[in-house]
Each structure stands twice: as C-alpha cells, then as structure tokens.
Specification:
184 residues, alpha/beta, 6 helices, 12% strand
Length: 184
C-alpha cells in the first residue's frame, strides 16, 4: 500500500548480507534516474538495548517503534517518491525468537505495519562473503545462518511475498529497479 504516494521498499535479510550496500547503490541509481529517494537505515544501528543473541521482546518493541516513527516521518517529506528500508518487521521477529510477548504487542505492531511496504526483497548470505565486523552485529556465521533460515517463517507469519535477490550488488539493483518499473 502506498503512503501518500510514496513507494516503500523493504530489504530484509540476515546481517552482513550486503543490504546496506545494496540500498546505497539503489538510492544512487534512483537519484540518477530523477526518482527522489531516501534510505532508512536499520534501527539497530542506534538502538541502546541488547541485540542479536541477547535481544529480547523489549528490544524488539523499541526497534519496531523506532522503525515506525522514522518511516512515518520519511514518507511525509515533500517530493519524496521512494523510501528504501534496511530491515523491517520480519527481521525484528527473527532476532527475537522464543521471547514471550504476553500482550502480543510486538506481533501486533509487526502485522499492522508490514502492509505499508510495497515491495519486499530478501538478501541471502553468501557463504563466500565473510561476515563484516561492525559495532552492531556479532561475528557468528552460525547465528547469521539461523536468522536466514528463520526468515521464511516470519514472512509467512506476516503474509509477506518476498523476492529473493542474487548475491551481487549490481544484479540486485537491476532486479529491484525492474520490479519498481524503473528502467535499469
């Protein structure tokens, strides 16, 4: 569903799969074609709570709230046509497995916000590409694979149809531009 005429694109996937780099390339390609766009970075980048192996339902709720706030602000920017989102509700759910959510707040937020995305693309890990260490994510190949393996269930829970992307950034951009109806 379009919000105020703005197309929202969600790039979902485990950490260190090139989502941020792909969105940067896509943003440049859109701008080059005269399509005003902006990248909404992953909320985990500025989350003050524990992430990954220690992420709990409170962290997940914070991430969902911050994501909703930031995307709501972005879609209201005059002249903006595309919001490129680095991670979203499916990603938050798979990082919070087995944590009780007594009021079902997290799942309710995820289910109500997910339909605001017009397109969902899935970046899968490339085993040949090692995990890039940063200040946010753990360097744990097993954990990265567990997140990737759990995403289809999160997509099902949220009634998401995702488009799996190739590994190479330029190929990803071409696939996404084609889906958006923008000439590659």
């Amino acid at each position: 569903m379009k919000i105020d005429g703005v197309t929202k694109v969600l790039l979902s996937g485990s950490f260190s799969t090139g989502k941020t780099s792909t969105l940067s390339l896509l943003h440049e390609a859109l701008e080059h074609r005269g399509v005003p766009s902006v990248v909404r970075l992953e909320p985990a980048r500025h989350c003050p709570l524990s992430l990954d192996l220690h992420q709990d339902v409170d962290t997940a709720r914070w991430l969902m709230g911050d994501l909703i706030r930031e995307e709501s602000e972005l879609v209201s920017r005059p002249g903006l046509r595309v919001v490129l989102c680095d991670g979203g509700p499916p990603d938050i759910l798979v990082h919070t497995p087995g944590h009780p959510d007594p009021e079902a707040t997290l799942l309710g937020l995820a289910r109500s916000w997910q339909p605001t995305y017009d397109f969902v693309f899935w970046a899968r890990p490339d085993i040949a590409q090692p995990i890039a260490a940063d200040d946010v994510r753990v360097v744990d190949e097993g954990y990265r694979q567990r997140i990737d393996t759990a995403l289809p269930a999160a997509f099902d829970t949220l009634s998401v149809t995702s488009h799996q992307l190739p590994h190479r950034g330029t190929d990803r951009v071409a696939v996404i531009l084609k889906q958006l109806g923008v000439m590659p």
